[in-house]
Amino acid sequence: MVKTAVITGSTSGIGLAIARALAKTGANIVLNGFGTADEIRTVTDEVAGLTSGSVLHHPADMTKPSEIAEMMATAASRFGGADILVNNAGVQFVEKIEDFPAEQWDRIVAINLSSSFHTIRAAIPPMKKNGWGRIINIASAHGLVASPFKSAYVAAKHGIMGLTKTVALEVAENGITVNSICPGYVLTPLVEKQIPDQARTRGITEEQVINEVMLKGQPTKKFITVEQVASLALYLASDDASQITGTHVSMDGGWTAQ
Ligand code: NAD
């Protein structure tokens, strides 16, 4: 049976790499995320070229529960629901706590945590009906440990780890697994945008941010690639991974071993 995957925030970075990898298995793909009309068309056409299934882009804004519900309803009406749900959309904002704008806190918690609550609750009923499902939450090394100036991000990523475990227990007998992936630094637009911000906040050069802040804590001293994260997601989505649930897999170059 052709599987259907919904991947939030899949017009760029890690989400797009996961969409490409799942498309190569022949799955139907529901893309989501922002971009110009041209960018979205290009990404949709590219992913459609990788699968024998169907590909659509849904523009739901992950800060808006009604739009998330509409995206999940579209997956249900077009494909009978998501067999594989990848909660990947995420944003960052770097500032010291006393200057951290409240609206950035609300935005980050909405996108990086609450959106997964909304997608998961809609995804579970069809997964239960099929007796099979895979939920993969893209958390972060920041789901396990903290860094200064990232209060909202670290709090939201710790939150998704708790949501992962709770839902995994609730659906453990239904053939549904729920796991998090905790990457270290992956070179994507999200990380590239942080480099000038961190340089400003810390009063250092961009090169120092890369070598002395980002890769300082990553013992391999190399950025992780989006393809490496996608390949782990592909494994967690497989039948071989049916006994991995309620946990996380780190891919952080040794960061959290310290
Ligand atoms: P990215 O900026 O390349 O991609 C983010 C995606 O989310 C884009 O498609 C964007 O359009 C989408 N998005 C942003 N706001 C949205 C919203 N309100 N509604 C819908 N879509 C929205 O980022 P990335 O680095 O690929 O990050 C993907 C995930 O991986 C995030 O959850 C991030 O926290 C996590 N992560 C990234 C790294 C890293 O080093 N890049 C490390 C650990 C975890």
From TrEMBL:
Gene Ontology terms, MF aspect: 3-hydroxybutyrate dehydrogenase activity
Alphabetical keyword list: Oxidoreductase
CDD domains referenced in this protein's UniProt entry, alphabetically: HBDH_SDR_c
Family matches, as InterPro entries: 3-OHbutyrate_DH (IPR011294), NAD(P)-bd_dom_sf (IPR036291), Sc_DH/Rdtase_CS (IPR020904), SDR (IPR050259), SDR_fam (IPR002347)
Superkingdom in the source lineage: Bacteria
Segments passing through the bilayer: none
Uppermost EC category: oxidoreductase
EC number(s) recorded for this UniProt protein: 1.1.1.30
Keyword Oxidoreductase: yes
Pfam name, any one: adh_short_C2
GO process terms (BP): monocarboxylic acid metabolic process
Record family assignment: Belongs to the short-chain dehydrogenases/reductases (SDR) family.
Protein's recorded name: 3-hydroxybutyrate dehydrogenase
Source organism of this protein record: Sinorhizobium medicae
